[in-house]
Amino acid sequence: MPSNRNARGVLLAASLLAGTPSPAQQPPPAQQESPAAPAPRLTKEPALVKSVEAAYPPEAAAQGLTADVRMLITIAADGTLSDVTLAEPVGHGFDEAALAAVRQFVFTPAEVDGVPAPVQVEYVYHFTLSAPPPPEPGTPEAAPAPATLTGTLISRGSRSRVAGATVRCGDDPEAPEAVTDAEGRFTLQVSPGECAVRVIASGFARYQTTETLKPHETTEVVFYLVPTGGAFETVVRSERPKKEVVRRTVSREEAQKTPGTFGDPIRVIQTLPGVARAPFISGELLVRGSNPGQTATLMDGVRIPLLFHLLGGPSVVNGELLDSLDFYPGGYGTQYGRAVGGVVDVTTRKGATDTLHGSVKVDLLDAGFFLEAPVTEGVSVAAAARRSYIDALLPAVLPKEEGRTLTVAPRYWDYQLRVDFGARSKPGEAAPSSTGGRSTGYVMAFGADDRLTLVSSGESQAQQITLGTHTNFHRIKGDWTYRDGPLTSVFTPYVGLDTFDISMGSYLEHDRVSSLGARETLALELSRAFTLRTGMDVYFEHATVDAEAPAPGGFEYVPFPGAEPQAELIHENRSINGFDGALFLEGDVKAGPFTVTPGVRANFQRVGGTRNVALDPRLWLKYAAGERTAIKGSAGLYSQPASTFQFLPLPYGNPALGYERAFQASLGVEHRFMDALHADVTGFFNRRYLNVVSPGAIVSQAGGGLLQQRFSNNGIGRAYGVEVMLKKERAHANDRWQGWVSYTLSHAEDGRAGALPPDLGGGFGGSQVGDTAYGLSPWDQTHILTLVSGYQLGNGWELGGRFRYTAGRPTTPLMHSADIYGADGNSFQPTWGSYFSTRTAAFHQLDLRVDKSWRFANWTLTGYLDVQNIYAAKNVEFTFDDYRFRKQYDIPGIPILPVLGVKGSF
Model confidence at 582, in pLDDT bands (50, 70, 90)? Predict the structure, then answer.
């Protein structure tokens, strides 16, 4: 006979997991109202108020067959079932019978953040057969003394507790059952004797065992459940409107096994549309034709000077601490500022609240650890650290041909420490009332250090180029979130310290920046059709520059003929204070299929005696053309302040600098072909103006003569193109394949307003007569193609690949017809061709990764081999000229680079 008595328990288990990953399917990432706002939480689970028992298939009953039918149930905001689909068909008529019954179920609505909202859960309908009970004797026997079975459910390989699972004793419909709590614990009162334990949990294989129980005794057990899902599964918790035309969110699990990233989730951003490839030692982000430094990199909403370690190394955040990565190539909301390119916001996660967890990773590049644990009720801690030793290994695999020797010695370390406080509301707990709010928060310290020495030499060269850099930063930030009904407040104060050292020949510079900032964001949901957000964002810094450099020469200076000029070294120590603040306001207005978000950000900067003001109106809109199709667009102005040290007095800076400005517009369409396949196409146009460039404009001095400013707001630029992303996700636990294709077709130009300087330098300049104000950007890449794929082979094996292709970067050719010798400077001078009239060779590279995992009871061991540039393509990263400018030498990037590593996690 069919059994559905445990339906309520199974539903409860699934609904409690509505806020956590589930192997049912992988829809698009959950949308967020604001990066500063906390993730939505399930405050009330749906309850089953009407169930219908499925008819047992006659043929299956005759054969004595049983089955567990897994389904995906979408419960609408009013409690009705909007969709019921099979996750894993089992056949024999069970699928049809289960679907017909479940479609008649009725639930009470679920609530997310105290508001009725749709949720999607996995439901398992059990078909079991039980023998009819024997005839009862005339005199019933006395019931035996009860026994107690209690224990804990743990996810095998991670020590994580499994909450919301159903535990029952036997397959009888009347058998007692229990649902595990948040700590994975359960207690059953059963009859003594053998108990056929059955454990059903969403996202885990069905667990079966037998326990012998004695009367009046309590048996305590620990059951280890085997996860059935892969690393790419998620669940739709609620539908949140987007506030940006393009926001590509990457989960930690999805990115950690992307080939070529060495297990670093943040490096997956380099495979997304709109991101050009930077030279391999820079670690810069070049987004939609913008220049280096024009894309903001944030960690939990706080700006950091660099996101990646030098030499294209890993990110400055341990991947285990990552919660999500939001990438906005453009068109972002008013809560973001100080950027005329894109925005990358890395969000860290709260430490574990159940027990101690951690991991240790060691490979050929670096070693690191991660730990998280609860401290007491409502308090948890997470910590991570990493140190490289690539400086001892990389030079051994770099090319050493005569005249091409490139010795790079990078070294880096980073750390993160986060302490969370304030218990969050539990599933089923009522939302905060109007008379009492709820506060949560955390304090976090993090930082990173990078050293890089670059030496290029060869016996055939007469000179040696040396470069040494050292970058270091530290941040301490707090976060206090207060919720009271429709009101949410997030306050984020922070302090920071950045240092930067550079040595180039006789030039030495040490920069130090002390910073203090705060952000306050208020969100008020006035109605289901209107949400208002406002806040402020202030930043203060004290910058000190200590430099030793050759004295700047005037235009009339002529060195002694035939002698190499030796300018006098001067030492300067300057300091300057800077302030930048902003007020922002925006609102979401919903009208049928339309969602419109107008907003404005007002910016104010003061450095020394200079005051700058900029107003940035922005508009975002979306039209839901159907259940699977949406059209979206945006337009707005964006501002970025010049760095404080650039305001130093002449000749070291320019106190008259103003805001860099940009106009950004985009229009796109997204369509989901099926649950696991969707596409996104977006066209964009960006125009940048008043950008800070160096060398600056040539100006007349009050006492006569000319002076070339070091910096000025004469930069202009524009970029336009189309971004395409086609992504295949894992549809269910048995779907082994996922991947995506991203392609960007773009054209980026840079230029200068006003007169062009006499010479912009070798590979990135050489302006000639006839050059126009606009020319190709040094970072222009017409075609950017990336293919990423991963496949689960089974038995713990996973295989992935990544292929990248980008068009070559523009370069100015060296036109050597004869040696040009400058007797005054005792040096040769180049002859350049047309500005950026050629390109370097195209970049192409294939990366492969193989993972093998062994899952033990309390920990998991993973070994991996990540191979970059598997066919050893010689991609050109730099070019150097000989001292007479007769020939250019290509400096290739990394050759084939296999990285073997192991990772243990518990």
Answer: very high
pLDDT tens profile 723-743: 999 988 877 767 888 888 999
What 8-state DSSP symbol labels residue 834? S
E strand or H helix at 275 = strand 275-276
DSSP H stretches of helix in 499-634:
none
> Radius of gyration over alpha carbons of the chain, in Å?
31
One DSSP character per residue, 726-766 reads EEE---STT--EEEEEEEEEEEEEEEESSSPPS---TTT--
Coil, strand or helix: which one is 890?
A: strand
- Measured from the Cβ of residue 416, the count of other Cβ atoms closer than 10 Å reads 24
Residue closest to 33 by CA, chosen among 302, 238, 252, 273: 238
Question: Is the pTM for the entire model greater than 0.85?
Answer: no
Token code pair at residue 144: 């035996």
DSSP character for 647?
A: G
- Max Cα distance, the chain (Å): 127
Query: Are 283 and 897 spatial neighbours (Cβ–Cβ below 8 Å)?
Result: no
Q: Which residues contact 454 (CB under 8 A, 6 or more apart)?
A: 281, 406, 407, 408, 465, 466, 467, 468
Q: Does 71 have pLDDT greater than 50?
A: yes
* CB-count burial class (<10 Å; 0-12, 13-18, 19+) for 821: exposed
State which amino acid sits at residue 729: E
Task: Give the pLDDT confidence of 207-227 residue by residue, as tens digits.
Answer: 888 888 888 788 888 888 888
How many Cβ atoms are within 10 Å of 67's Cβ, its own excluded? 18
- How many whole angstroms separate alpha carbon 817 and alpha carbon 833? 11
Say if CB 94 and CB 57 are below 8 A apart.
yes
* Interior/surface letters 257-280, b for 16+ CB within 10 angstroms, e for the rest: bbbbbbbbbbbbbbbbbbbbbbbb
386 token code pair: 């990493």
Q: How many CB atoms lie within 10 A of CB 822?
A: 9
The Cα angle at residue 647 between residues 646 and 649, in degrees rounded to 5: 110
Distance (Å, rounded) from C-alpha 704 to C-alpha 363? Answer: 62
CA-nearest of 801, 849, 855 to 228 is: 855
Distance CA 47, CA 236 (A): 18
Nearest to 624 by CA among 672, 677, 587, 586: 672
Write out 586-625 in H/E/C secondary structure. Answer: EEEEEECCEEEEEEEEEEEEEECCEEEEEEEEEEEEEEEC
The CA distance from 693 to 690, in Å, is: 9
pLDDT at 409 over 90: no
Return the pLDDT at 38.
Answer: 52
SS3 assignment for 109-141 = CCEECCEECCEEEEEEEEECCCCCCCCCCCCCC
How many C-alpha atoms does 722 have within 13 Å on its Cβ side? 5
Looking from the CA of 370 toward its CB, the CA atoms found within 13 Å total 21
Confidence of residue 548 (pLDDT cuts 50, 70, 90): confident
d(CA 757, CA 759): 6
How far is the C-alpha of 477 from the C-alpha of 445, rounded, in Å? 6
What's the rounded Cα separation, in Å, for the pair 379 and 98?
44
Nearest to 319 by CA among 245, 416, 430, 206: 416
Q: If we measure between CA atoms, which residue out of 580, 582, 686, 687 comes closest to residue 643? A: 580
Please write down the HEC assignment for all residues of 549-581.
Answer: EECCCCCCCCCCCCCCCCCCEEEEEEEEEEEEE
pLDDT at 397: 56
How would you write 175-200 as a 3-class SS string?
CCEEECCCCCEEEEEECCEEEEEEEE
pLDDT digits (tens, 9 = 90+) for 121-133: 888 888 877 655 5
Residue 693 scores a pLDDT above 50: yes
Specify the pLDDT at position 7. Answer: 36
CB–CB of 889/404 below 8 Å? yes
Q: Which strands, in side-by-side order, build the sheet including 248-251?
A: 248-251, 322-328, 343-348, 296-299, 302-303
pLDDT on residue 55: 85
